[in-house]
Amino acid sequence: MRTGQLPRDFPPGRDPIEVILRGGIVPIRKRDPGIPKKLAEVIDSALQERLNDRYQTADEFLRELTTAL
User: Fold this and answer.
1) d(CA 17, CA 61)
2) 8 A C-beta contact, residue 25 and residue 44
3) Mean pLDDT, to the nearest integer, of 48-68?
4) Spatial distance between the Cα atoms of 22 and 4, rounded to a whole number of angstroms
5) In terms of CB atoms within 10 Å, which end of the chain has fewer, N or C?
6) Residues 3 and 33 sit within 8 Å (Cβ to Cβ)
7) What is the distance between the alpha carbons of residues 23 and 45, in angstroms, rounded to a whole number?
């Protein structure tokens, strides 16, 4: 929502499901370099593919987000 773009690239002609399953998340600063680095790190962490690499609770995410702002 911050950039007005999706976190993945969906090239024309490619199956969207394949993109979701095999394509990576585009780092948010590639979409908008003006986003502060710390905030970008929090957002990128929240969008990680592997569950164990994401924030484990909403409280943990809120704490990191508040610190980044």
Assistant:
1) 27
2) yes
3) 93
4) 22
5) N
6) no
7) 16
